From TrEMBL:
Subcellular location, record wording: Membrane
Pfam families: Gpr1_Fun34_YaaH
Keyword Iron-sulfur: no
One cellular component (GO) term of this entry: plasma membrane
Membrane topology, record value: Multi-pass membrane protein
Keyword terms: Membrane, Transmembrane, Transmembrane helix
Family membership noted in the UniProt record: Belongs to the acetate uptake transporter (AceTr) (TC 2.A.96) family.
Highest taxon of the lineage: Eukaryota
Membrane spanning residue stretches: 62-83, 95-113, 133-151, 163-180, 186-206, 218-236
Lineage, top ranks: Eukaryota, Fungi, Dikarya, Basidiomycota, Agaricomycotina
Annotated protein name in UniProt: Gpr1 family protein
GO MF assignments: acetate transmembrane transporter activity
InterPro entries xrefs: AceTr, Gpr1/Fun34/SatP-like, GPR1_FUN34_YAAH
Matches recorded under NCBIfam families: AceTr_1
Amino acid sequence: MSDIEKNTSGMPSAGNTLTTINGAHAAQFPLGPDPGGVYPYTLGASAAQQQLYQGVTGLRKFANPAPLGLLSFASTTLVLSLINVSTRGVTTPNIVVGMALGVGGLAQLLAGMWEFAAGNTLGATAFSSYGGFWLSFASIYIPNSGILAAYDDTAELEHAVGFYLAVWFIFTFIMLIASLRSNYGLISLFFFLTLTFMFLMIGKFVENVKITQAGGGFGIVTAFIAYYCGAANLLTRESSYFLLPLIPVPNGKKD
């Protein structure tokens, strides 16, 4: 889930400077990261926010929380999706509870809080909300929560879970619309995640295992796209011998 903003020439523009930083530093920090990795790749962040991640003399320096959020989301989504497609005959999702609490839930929620601190609304909303999703999903399968035990009728339980998934389908579709001016990596991630929730939702409502498995298949695709986006955020000129492109949308987000 990551938003890259680059100049078409591949180099910082001398006339496009960060005016919100005082004059002593403005000339040193032109807006927009270049393909060489001067600025980190961040989820939905403006150029000014990306410079805050990078650090400016006299300002607090933030590490980029996007890799933590993306890779945590990818890992937990992959495990659950493998179960949804009945890989190796596994169909009971309880094994994902631990990951949903610690990785998909807590780690993503922390990433979202750091995105809030950096002023990145899209990244903060995505990571915090999906962190909440995983925490709430885990609570369904914790025996002491009593959620599953409250349903004596299997069909009623399936439909109730369908309502739960329908809400996340709507939310994810909104996130897809919000990402349309970012980059193709992020757009692809939300597109396939929307399909994932849609098929899982329908599978619960019609109680059709094949449709649920189709949702699991889209979830696997979503997980690997999230892995790619997370790696693209993590691999910078300073930390890696190569970079991964995310392909910004032409005439996309601008400051």
